[in-house]
Structure formats: C-alpha cells, structure tokens
Amino acid sequence: MATKQQLSAIKGAKVLMVGAGGIGCELLKTLALSGFQDIHIIDMDTIEVSNLNRQFLFRQSHVGQSKAKVARDAVLKFSPQISITSYHANVKDPDFNVDFFKQFNVVLNGLDNLDARRHVNRLCLAAAVPLVESGTTGFLGQVTVHMKGKTECYECQPKPAPKTYPVCTITSTPSKFVHCIVWAKDLLFTKMFGDKNQENDLNVRSSDASSSSEHAEDVFERKTDEDIEQYGKRIYDHVFGYNIEVALTNEETWKNRNRPRPIYIRDVPSTELIQENGNVDKIFVADDPLSVSAMASLGLKNPQDVWSLMENSRIFLEALKLFFVKREKEIGRLTFDKDDQLAVEFVTAAANIRAVSFGIPFHSLFEAKGIAGNIVHAVATTNAIISGLIVIEAIKVLQNDASNYRMTYCLEHPSKKMLLMPVEPFEPNKSCYVCSETPLLLEVNTYRSKLRDFVEKIVKAKLGMNFPLIMHGSALLYEVGDDLEEDMAANYAANLDKVLSELPSPVTGGTILTVEDLQQELSCNINIKHREEFDEEKEPDGMILSGWMQAPPKEKENNKISSDNGASTSNASPAVPLETEEDNEIEIVLTGAENVAAGNKRKLSDISNAATSDLCSVADKTNSKNKPEELDDDDDLVMLDDGNSNTSKKKRLR
Ligand SMILES: Nc1ncnc2c1ncn2[C@@H]1O[C@H](COP(=O)(O)OP(=O)(O)OP(=O)(O)O)[C@@H](O)[C@H]1O
Ligand SMILES: [Zn+2]
C-alpha cells in the first residue's frame, strides 16, 4: 500500500516512458494501476506478430499499428481517468530536445538498444531529469537509477565490446556453427543482396594472393539474361565448391586441421527436384514481400526439423531464386533481419551447407535463426518484475528519497534464497566524458586520415553523437543541421574530404578538438596525438580513441567480424557471468580500469554499504547443484545491445 506522501508524489508527477515493448507494456499498466496520472510514451515501432506472446496490451488485430498508441488505448480502457500521451516516433528525433525532457519529473526507459539508451542518458543529464534505466534478457534483468551529479550516469562504465570473430576463422577455418552463420549472414547474404559497394571479405582466403581474384570479382553478378536456376547453381558451386578448393591449396592452413570438403551441386542428390516441387506462385500473399518463403514453396513446414544436405541445397537455390523473382527491387539494399523469413531460410541453408564442408553438425532453421538474430527468448515474468521495480524506484525519485535508491538485479538462480539483488548506486565516474569534463585522446595519422574518417569512426560510431559540431579553437570545421547556409554546408562538405592536417585550421599532434552534439547538449575535448603507422589487421580504423571508454577486448585477434545485428532485448548494463565456485555467494565484478586489470571481485557483503565504487556487473555465483548446464559455444546464448552495430554490446550467458 502506498503511503499518503507516496500517493501525492505519484499524482503530481509527469512521467516519460521510452519504449512500449516487452518492458514498456508491463510498465505502462503498472504505472496506471499505481495511480500515475500523466504519462507520456514514445515508441518508434509498429506491432509485430512476434510481440504478441508477451506484449500483452497488443492483440492480433493491432499488428501493423503504432505500439505507443495501441498501448495508450489499451490502458485507457481500464484507467480512463488518466492522461496518456503517445508519440509514434524515434526518441532521437530533434523534437524530443532538452526542453521537451525538462517537462518531466522522471524518465523511464524500456528500450532494447545501446544507441537509444545513450541518447536518452545524455538528454536526461542535459535536462537534469532523473532516469530509471532497465533491461531484461531471458531470466536476467536490472533496474538502475541515474541522477545527474549524484549517481553514475548510464555511460559512466564502458559497455562490453560486441562478440567478434577473426576474419580468417569466418572466411577460412570455421569450427563452430556460429562461424558458418556469421559467414552466411554477414558475408554471403550481404554480397548477394546487400550493398555491392560495401567492403566484403567473402573471397578472402588464407591462401589468397595469387588466387584468381578476377574470377571472384564478377562471379556474384547475374549476367544479362542468365537463367535464374543456372545463376543459383553457379553461385552454389563458387562458394561451396570452388572457394573451398582454393582454400585447400594452402597446405599450411590444414597442417593441424581437418581439411574441408568442397561441395558442388552435382554432388548433391536430387536437387533437381526443385524444378518439380518449387512453385513460386503457390503460397504468397500478393504484394507482401515478407510472406515469400522457400520453405513454403518446397512444402517444408517445421522450422525445428534439421534438414539434410539435399534439403538445405534446395532451400538455398529456392530462396536465392525467390529473392530475384519476388523481391528483386530490394536487391542491393537488403541487410539481414531476423524477422525476414526468406533471409533466415537463405542464411540457414547456406550456413548448413558450409557446415557440412567443415564437418560441423547441421542445425534447424529455428536454431539458426536464434544464433543469427542473437535471440535470447524473452521471459514475460522478468519483464513484469523489472517493471514493478522501475515503478518502485520512480516513486523514490519523486519523493527525493536518495538514500534509498537501489540498482536491482534480477538473477536466474536464487542466491541466499534471493532472486532480486539490490545494490546501492554509485557516484559518478569522475573520468566519464559524458557526465564529467574529462578529455579523450585520439591517436591518428593527421597526414593521412580525413575529417570524414574522424566523423564516421569516432564522433558517430564511438561517441554516439547524432548532430555533431567540430571545433578547433574558435574555428568551426564541421557542423550538421537543416538550417545551414548553402556556402557553409559546401565548406563543411569540402572539409570532410580533406586530411586533418590540411583543414583550414590544421589538426596536427597537440591539437585539442572540441566535439559537441547540440541536441544532446554534450561537449567533449579530444587531444590529438599524431601517429605514423597503424597495424591494418589490429587497428583497422587507422585511429585509436582512448580514455575512460576503452572496453577491454575479449579476444586477442583484432581483425574481427561481429556477429552482431543489433536487435535484441538486453540489459542496460552488463551482468557478466563469473567462473563458478563451490559457494553460493553473489559477487560484484568491478570493471573500472584498475579493477579489470587487477581482476578484482568483491562479495556483496563487502560492499553492501559502499558509497563509491565502479560497480558494473553482478553475477550469480551458483553452486554446482543449480549451476546451469555447460553449453558448447555454439549454443551459447548471446545477447547484444545495439541500434548501431559499431557501438553495440553483447553478453553471453551460460
Ligand atoms: N530510438 C528509439 N526510439 C523509440 N523507441 C525505440 C527506440 N529504440 C527502441 N525502441 C523501442 O523499444 C522497445 C523495446 O522493446 P522490446 O525490447 O520488447 O523489443 P521488441 O522490438 O518489441 O521485441 P523483439 O526485439 O524481442 O522482437 C521497442 O518497442 C522499440 O520500438
Ligand atoms: Zn557518466
């Protein structure tokens, strides 16, 4: 039961919710039933069938409609007396500026990507509005409170880098099914149906050098009037046969590894059946490209079946054909989407055929989709628990009850009979460039790198700025905005193509650049250090940004392909599982730079009264009895958090 004071705080509050998905639906309902009277809700998405199992405010008839609006209407049916304002929009839209944020007493996030979370964090800091941040992944979840100057901001701790794989593992020596999936999704699918100008390592082989790159260059182009069946078979033979033959010529690679087997279409029994069974026009809803399915066309129904080589080959050829026959307009623009059935079918089949070559077991479409889409199946109960905790923290914030704020972690296994673990929030990280004024350091070859590289690779990808403005002293080098004068816009465009040292106000070693995002009202200084050489493999960006945000890379190799496609429900901050020991204690992993270096861990009891620290992660140290089954890497549940693959984070749960 709420006290009188709580009720009055609730009634007088104006609240902004961002996200009306799994957490958002629960949250809106709980806010309404707790007595909140004035709720605003932003969500940019429309309702999909796959949301209906847990986003309980939505029904089949709502598919295709705005989540924010339908959620509003559904809650108003049982709480008609309250005011709910919905915005079907991206929270990054300029309309949602600092003044917009200032009208709220508290902001509650129910988002699913790092990019949007960072953006909201910055606006809350700029507007000095408290933020309650949240995230769930399967059984895990967390709620954290962020208040300018009093607690850590959402970005005070670096987020774990996304899981990546060395290019050569993906292109030449896969040993796990996930390697085949990454190859099929990020290389083959992109090469066939994505942006042709994008760099693609599909034809990089460990042997390479003299291998016929000419052959590789144009093989993916469909020749004028080339029969689609022939084209599909030619691609099949090239990627599963010829490319493997070429890789085999590098004896060095296979000295200590099993040699892969090239597979040609002629080796696959009965693929010709495709001609008889495949019926492109059979099942599809006119004008709905997403209803196109190779499985449906071939009469394969169960996504949990593991297909044979023959079936995978038929799906591969049929899916390729369907893209060209039914979705030709999209070719050249497609990116892999886990909700695109035909794309999932193509990627599953291609990954399985590659897996056979390398002696890796087949996987079903259902499993392949989970791996390709980094899907951790959502648990509705976790969303409900987390939403309840958000409201509890929001009420404390409204009452200014700072001594009782808690970051709460929802665990998968009880620890000391507790599933929820509350921890006191920590003070702001003094070296966080978002909420403090710490300068960053950029090592870059100022005679070779262009301003464009700096803007794309650092300002947008690493610093997460949307509307950057770059200054050297009082000289403005770059700015974006709709209201720029034509000649200024032309100047900035010209600057983008200049190397740093040749800019009107030259940027060289020792320069201090100021980078600002006007919308986020975020400004930071970057000290420039000239460096002549960069290792192409290990430092592919040709520039290195350091400061607080450098997350320690998980693997040694740096030339990596990320398996990250950017869409998943995931936590606001990391909960990295620890090695299990034979006790049943919860440990806090400190991921501040020194702590990572020292590998420090602290027990909850050690820190229960801690006022300051770098708490980043919490993990349940389970005893052997309830220790989850050890999974092979292929089966790791992988989660990531992103809108922008460059900045996304991912966690793996065991
Ligand atoms: N930049 C953004 N602006 C507004 N809303 C956003 C933004 N980024 C994400 N969201 C919303 O946050 C919600 C997150 O909900 P949830 O994690 O349940 O994801 P989902 O897309 O509904 O489900 P799933 O990803 O599991 O299919 C989504 O409804 C999404 O539209
Ligand atoms: Zn911070």
TrEMBL record:
Residues 442-534 form the Ubiquitin/SUMO-activating enzyme ubiquitin-like domain. It is found in: Nucleus. Zn(2+) binds at C153, C156, C432, C435. Signal peptide: none annotated. One of its GO terms (biological process) is protein sumoylation. The keyword Zinc applies. It comes from the Eukaryota. One of its GO terms (molecular function) is transferase activity. Pathway: Protein modification; protein sumoylation. Residues 214-223 have a biased composition (Basic and acidic residues). One of its GO terms (cellular component) is cytoplasm. Its main location: nucleus. Residues 630-639 have a biased composition (Acidic residues). Keywords: ATP-binding, Metal-binding, Nucleotide-binding, Nucleus, Transferase, Ubl conjugation pathway, Zinc. ATP binds at residues 19-24, 43, 51-54, 67, 112-117. Residues 201-223, 533-580, 619-654 are annotated as: Disordered. The active site is at C168 (glycyl thioester intermediate). Residues 560-573 have a biased composition (Polar residues). InterPro entries: ThiF/MoeB/HesA, ThiF_NAD_FAD-bd, UAE_UbL_dom, Ub-E1_IAD_1, Ub_act_enz_dom_a_sf, Uba2, Ubiquitin-activating_enz. Residues 5-433 form the THIF-type NAD/FAD binding fold domain. It holds the Pfam family UAE_UbL. Heterodimer. Belongs to the ubiquitin-activating E1 family. This is SUMO-activating enzyme subunit.
